[in-house]
Amino acid sequence: MALGDSYTIGTSVGSAERWPDQLVKVLRDGAAGRGDAAPLELVGNPSVSGYTTRDVIRDEVPQLESLRPEVVSLLIGTNDVIQGVGPSEYVRNLGTILDAVVARVGEGRVFGVTTPDYTVTPAGADYGDPAVRARTIRDYNALFQATLGRRGIAVVDIHDISLGAATDRSLVAADGLHPSGRQYALWVERIAPVVSRILGDSLPI
């Protein structure tokens, strides 16, 4: 189950290009190459473009009960920055989300993904001063990593990959703002080994 915002629901890319869908395919293909069953399937992606941690708590967390996931991802923070959710509330909200998720699947079955830097995209300046927003995204990523780290939850950092969009426009979707399927594929190259370890699969992907 994938919790988050536009970066997880894959705004402006096809469903197969979303990183959770690409992750499932990479793990499935790797398992098939070894003659094994697919280790992971996507039971739900309730992520919504524009969502903050407040929205995840209100609308996405309650779906844990009906979807009954065994592994959960969390990527959230950009809209907290844009919509003015302060650092202390952001950390508090992350704690609320993690409490619910860990109660369902356990700390060893949760992983986080950091927030990309949208400010380097062609439309990035439409959402606040790029220099200020970029700095705040880094700050919130640090809070995200620290909050999950204190619980022993793995975090995959893709922030540096997103910076490549400044010079490589193939990493940007058609809307000029969100990641392209190609950028998400680069994310998955980092995410897949972490999830493979979470699933107890030590064999190469």
Strand arrangement within the widest β-sheet reads 1-2-3-4
Q: What's the helix count?
A: 9
Structural class: alpha/beta
Based on CA atoms alone, the radius of gyration comes out at 16 Å
Summarize the structure in short.
The protein is an alpha/beta fold and about 200 residues long. It is built from 9 helices and 4 strands, in the order βααααβααβαβαα.
Structural commentary:
It is a single chain. The chain has 205 residues and is an alpha/beta fold. It contains nine helices and four strands. The protein has a four-stranded parallel beta sheet, with helices on both faces. α7 (130-149) links the parallel β3 (110-113) and β4 (154-156). α6 runs parallel beside α7 (130-149). The two termini are 21 Å apart. 40% of the residues are buried. Mean pLDDT is 95; it is low at 201-205.
Topology overview:
Layout: E1 2-4, H1 6-9, H2 19-33, H3 53-60, H4 64-67, E2 72-75, H5 78-82, H6 87-105, E3 110-113, H7 130-149, E4 154-156, H8 159-163, H9 181-198
Helix pairs in contact: 2-9, 3-6, 6-7
Provide keyphrases for this structure.
single chain; 205 residues; alpha/beta; 4-stranded parallel beta sheet; 9 helices; 4 strands; globular; disordered C terminus
